[in-house]
Target: F-actin-capping protein subunit alpha
Amino acid sequence: MAEEDCELNEKRKREIAKWFLLNSPAGEIQYIAKDLRSVLNDEKAYNEAALEAFPLYNKSHFICLELPDRSGEVLVTSYNELDENEFLDPRTAQVAIVDHVKQVCTEMRPTADEELSSPYIEEFRYAI
Model:
C-alpha cells in the first residue's frame, strides 16, 4: 500500500478529532483536547473540530461556568441557550456570553424583555 493511502485527509482528521472530543469523559475534554492537538499535528483540523465539538459537549454535559464578576455560575444547556454563545441566567436576569473552547464565561449583558420567561413560567422556576 502506498504511503499516501495511509494519510488521512483533512476532513477525516476533523471527524476523528470531533469524535474523540465529543466522547471525552465528563470533565476531561480539556485534557483530551490538549493530547489530541499534539497527536493530530494539524492546527486547522483541530480548531475546526473544537469549534464544532465543544458547544455540543458543553451543552450535553450541562457544564457550569463562573460568571465574570464571580457573583455566581451559569449552566450551559440547550434549555437556556438564546444564541450560539449566549445563555440566560434566570437567577440574575442576565445573559452570559460563553467561549465554548476555553470553557469560560467572557462577559455578561442585561437580558432583553423578550428573552425573559413569562411570569407564569418564572413562578414555577422559582418554586423548583
Residues 68 and 122 are 24 Å apart (CA to CA).
